[in-house]
Amino acid sequence: MKNRVKKEIDFSVYTETYLGKVGELTLKGSNIKTFEKQLVNNLRTALETADAKVKVLTGRLYVHCTKESCGVVEFALDHLLGITGWAKVQNVEKTMEAITEAVKVEGLKAKSAGAKTFKIDARREDKSFPLNSYEICIQAAGVLFDDGTMDVDVKHPDCVINVEVRDKAYVYCAQKKTGRGLPVGVSGKGLLLLSGGIDSPVAGYRMMRRGMRVECVYFHSYPYTSEEAQKKVQDLAKTIAMYGMETHLNVVPFTEVQMKIKQKAPEEYSTLMLRLCMMKVANMIAKHIGSDAIITGESLGQVASQTSQNLAVTESFAELPLYRPLIGLDKEEIVDTALEIGTYATSILPYEDCCVLFSPKHPVLRADVEESRKLYEAMEIDDLVAKSFEEREIIRYSIRDEIASMKENSTL
Q1: Minimal CA–CA distance to 230: which of 251, 245, 215?
Q2: Whole-model pTM?
């Protein structure tokens, strides 16, 4: 077997460096390498078409790239789950002369942005470095304080300049927070019932943050729901795919199913019967794609179909574990996350889905499982449900393809 030769990074080409801070992964035990490998593989896949090199070492994720690739690298890091944040850093030699010069550059940038006070935060991972963390702070701070660039304030500084002494010295100031959580791919696969509303995209994102790959299903009732409504859901699927690496959106034609529900079911049960039909299709798709669970955006008591009793009826039709990550959240908390991940503006576009358009004036609030099952069976609707499953359209979205498109169109 041939020995693999480790290729050194050519820093004359890969002149720019980014550092990502690994958060929850550091709490893992003997399986931490599995999580780190998934994190690196995710970022490498996203940046497959970019000029960038990725590695992870002692709680830090490193990306070295060309200047032209900075935009796509920052886009990928903004959407990467499994890190708490990232910063563009100066990558310098491990000497105090190089470190203090880099600190001065960061201080002048902070001052030009309006900062008047600063502090130095130093970490010495390389214990062979002659100065300890405190001594690094003292010498680095003196460069900015002695020449009057800024005043020191260790309690409430306008900016914090970080110095990390590792394989090299890394100096940075501005940091950007990200989604935290676990790398997508370490927690199996889930199927998300995706509507055009605010809640379901947030539910999918929250499961992605726990490391789950997420596929999507959307129920479309043309012409009662417009093409704009479907486009809205496609945009939502594309947005959350940027966090989940990729997703497949299953667009299920549901017009015939809804019309039969309207004909056969008591009006007050129509929304609940629709949810049961959706769950039947979700079971089929989930088994087809090897999903471990079904995910919904339900929040307890938010609407009539989400009372405790009605949720129990819906769950009784699920053939896989049913995850409801929003179950205890109020609307304000859900909206905050939607704003954070960029789905809110799309979700509030005035194109309503089939659940809204066919809602009864006085829906049942406390349905019984057995009674609901009898009403479902009386509709004799399983053949139409199976037909809608067979006629679904599948659309794929991935962050890799999005970055490739951005590069091609020079949008980053």
Answers
A1: 251
A2: 0.93
